[in-house]
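step 4 of 6: structure.
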Amino acid sequence: MCSVYINCLCELSKQFMKIRQLTFRLLQVYADVVRSGSITATANRLYLTQPTVSQQLKRLREIVGEPIVRQEEGRIVPTEVGQALYQLSQDLLSRADVFSQYLDEYNSGGRGHFSIGLVNTAQYVLPRLLGPFSQANPQVDVTVEVGNRQQMLNRFERHEDDIYVFSHPPIDDAVLAAPFLSNPLVVVGPEQCRWAGVEGLTMDDLKEERFLLREPGSATRHTFNAWLDSAGIELRSTQQIASNEAIRLAVASGMGLAVLSRHIVADSPKGVQELPLQGFPLKSRWHFVVRRERRLPPAAYRFLSFVQGSLAREFEELEGEAAVAELLQVLKAER
Amino acid sequence: MCSVYINCLCELSKQFMKIRQLTFRLLQVYADVVRSGSITATANRLYLTQPTVSQQLKRLREIVGEPIVRQEEGRIVPTEVGQALYQLSQDLLSRADVFSQYLDEYNSGGRGHFSIGLVNTAQYVLPRLLGPFSQANPQVDVTVEVGNRQQMLNRFERHEDDIYVFSHPPIDDAVLAAPFLSNPLVVVGPEQCRWAGVEGLTMDDLKEERFLLREPGSATRHTFNAWLDSAGIELRSTQQIASNEAIRLAVASGMGLAVLSRHIVADSPKGVQELPLQGFPLKSRWHFVVRRERRLPPAAYRFLSFVQGSLAREFEELEGEAAVAELLQVLKAER
DNA sequence: AGAACACATAGATAATTATCTATGACTATA
DNA sequence: TATAGTCATAGATAATTATCTATGTGTTCT
């Protein structure tokens, strides 16, 4: 038995407490005995028999290596060492208790940490969900990661975040996705765009325009391309710009038109306007994406619940709310 | 099995940590794993096998109810809960360590408490031992009880103190006594006493004098009486006074003569002087008295050692030092 | 791809712990 | 001085824990 080695090391210096055998149970029992001054009373309170408690005390005494209580006028009173031990017990037990409370909070999701990875476009709406959530759960600490679709896919592959937001969830069996919010894509032009007032505007009218596009990995671009393909249209002139914000500014300064999430336009409409192109807005939706195998931190779960409770109210997204509700169901079942 | 009841209470609220099974050993192992980031390394360091450590972690995980570590790039890293648990471990272990140190100090006698019961007369010399001891051992807290012989005997009977000092130790098998310091009894008279210069002064000369005596229980009185008896002398006139100090003052004011410990006269010689009566000083000695069955607090043991080391030096009491050394031997053997 | 390493799991066993019941000893109190 | 109450001890047993060895499963480095 290996324990021999270590015990030996301890035994040599003789007077050390045999700390390795010390359990919180013993301390609990001991503390109660000191408080009640009676072994029998403690036994009753803890649903034990009196000899059991006596023996626990004996064992604790052996662990400490010193008498810890004595009987005095019918009461059990701690010796000097016993008093120090009692203080220790109180101290240790209350600390363990604090930890236990922390665990509770952690499990309820009211405390802790989770990280969420957003594709660029989503950063315009997620704050509207995260803000109120953080307000309501100040002890929860959220990390928000933002990147373009490819970067987010990389993070996703490496399991780096707890929740992801994609327009087009990666196809993967080990993944759960819930479309929680519609993300209408609209065509935007500069403020004084000549197409603005045109009724029944079609893509045909715009084919001479230059279109400013996100990089090929981008979901917005992908959706737009798919639509162009299905409509059999090819753009005459395009230019690639890496950020939505840069695109908006470029559009405002008259460099061309663009397809953007309507949320972006709503968020910062300066210098641009939505054009009433037929067939638009293109429908698309953001999805919450979580990995099946990854145990979702309770705080992340709580966030999803929170979102589920506010989509209908704040965003009139009944479908989204239902989808998130279903996601939560599945997660709960798998826990 | 009774454990069922309590477990049930816990199980109902579900997420609580199973604190009763938590041992310090587990925390030690866990803390080491977190520090080293490796199960195998910890196993080696603690002279265990790798599976043993793995299983300890598993058990700890079950106790906590949450995953506490995960493997990440070959290292074991704590989860969020695991980090909190690690902090807890450190905290608890260091507290237990402090207690362990306290125990050491207590056992070495360098810290703690003991009480010593003195008969009145001894209070004139014991401070000369206790003072330096306290100075050298500031963490030791000594209670000194003082009373007349009868009062001390009562305390002794009730096991109220750790060490007693008597001139005449109570006869009791369960008692160890070491005569540590001589206590010469001398006859004293007022400063201008006519007997002061007389050569070959005998009791016969003094039989007309009034003698001021302590109460019958007193050792001083007892010794004096025994001497009177053996010399076949009966005193003409006596008066009983309860305290040595009061007797000294009474003698100084000419109320009579008295037999007192020479230490008292040495301590406060004002108004009195020793008379050169033949046969005096009467020999007597103070004894340290301890009960065999009572476990002497280490601090008390340390005090006796201290005394043993200073008697020869400070009091030229070689015999006393030997007697205390012997006492310590016996105590050590009985521990 | 193969070797080396790190961890997990299974199965076995010895040691320890947690309990109980029964009984004995001591101590107050009626 | 009975009597009741409190604690200690003994003896028995079930449960848990601490270990090991052997083996399996992934990573990581070459």
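step 5 of 6: annotate
 - Chain B has three domains: 15-108, 113-181+285-334, 185-275.
 - The first strand of chain B starts at residue 69 and ends at 72.
step 6 of 6: archive
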